[in-house]
Each structure stands twice: as C-alpha cells, then as structure tokens.
Amino acid sequence: MTKQEMRTDATKKAILKFAEEEFSEKGLYGCRVDEIARKANVNKALIYRHFGNKESLYKEVLVRVYTRLGDLEEQVINLQTDYELKLKDLVHIYFQFLYDNPSFVRMVMWENLHGAKSFKERGVAETKNPILHELGRIIQEARLRSGVPESIDSDQLILTLIACSFNYFSNMNTLNIIVGKDLMLAENREKRIQATTEMLLAYLKARQ
C-alpha cells in the first residue's frame, strides 16, 4: 500500500468513526455532514468524494456496526459442549456485545423508526450473525440429546432472546426509572442474563 493509499484509508476510517457517532446519536435525518467533517477534520467535499452522499454514508455505517456481530464467531465456536451451558454462554456473549456496542443498539433503533429502509436495501439482514446461527445449533442439539420435538418454534426462541437482551439496552433509560435501579451495573446485567437463560431453557424443556 502506497503512502497516498494509507492516507486515504486513514481518512475514510476517521470519517466512518465520527459518522457512526453522529448517526447513532441523531439518526440519518438529524445528522449533519458538516459536523462529521468538523470532527474528522476533513473537508466536507472529501466525504462526498469517498461516499457519494449522506444516505450512502449512513448505509456504510449501518453495515459497519452490523459486521461487528461477525467478530463474535470465534467466541461462539469455543462454547461449552453441553447445550444448557452453551446457551448460558451464548446469552452472556450477546449481552456483553450489546453493552460494548451502544451505537449498534441506537442504529437499530433508528432503523426501526424509519421502517428498516436501509436495513433492507443494503441486505444488512444477511450479515453474518453467529449468535442466531449458534442458537439454531443449540436447538438441534436439544432435539437430539433431550427429546425436544421438531415442532418447537425456533423463531419464538430467537424472538425471546432478542426481546430479553436488545430491549434491555434499547429501553434502558425508562427501565431504570421503572424499576428504580441502575440496570447497567454488572450485578443487574448478570441477573438479567440469568433470567433470560432460564426463560429460554424453560421453553425448551416444557416441550420435552
């Protein structure tokens, strides 16, 4: 890679970094390219040269945050062999990912507010998601080892995992007030992980 290519790459990374901050905080329509340019210390015209327009930059950021799910693959493939322990570890990994990636949570919230338009256009839904892939494998293992019937609705298990984990972080501010606790504290997150795991296992075992 030449020096010019290295500078271009560094510039694009800086733009994406600050674009992620702005889009996750303000959404596509509230974000201003001028502010991204100011934070990245680049000329606004350079952003348009690299990414075309604000909508294209937003979609690039959306793909960027979703691609981080793929980074969990190495953790997922090294899980326990017992399906119950594997499920517990999987829930913990997903909770930790959401905790470590608040911009992911906010970007998904913005997409839902706008009908998942960019989510569909860029095919983000097809982005590798090792969490859901491994959950499918856990269901298969439960069927083989514990007699969980084929009729079990795997979609409901997936929806329950998402509802119990993603919604925990996306609704954090109001939930803190409702329960009168700081749910971001490690001890409270751990309680939620335990409750979510027990709920998922109960769903599987109730159908044995």
Automatic annotation (TrEMBL):
PROSITE patterns: HTH_TETR_2
Signal peptide: none
MF GO annotations: DNA binding
Annotated ranges, domain HTH tetR-type: 9-69
InterPro entries in the record: Homeodomain-like_sf, HTH-type_TetR-like_transc_reg, HTH_TetR, NicS_C, Tet_transcr_reg_TetR-rel_C_sf
Gene3D superfamilies per the UniProt record, alphabetical: Tetracycline Repressor, domain 2
Keyword tags: DNA-binding
Pfam families: TetR_C_29, TetR_N
SUPFAM superfamilies (UniProt xref): Homeodomain-like, Tetracyclin repressor-like, C-terminal domain
Protein name according to UniProt: HTH-type transcriptional repressor NicS
Lineage: unclassified sequences, metagenomes, ecological metagenomes
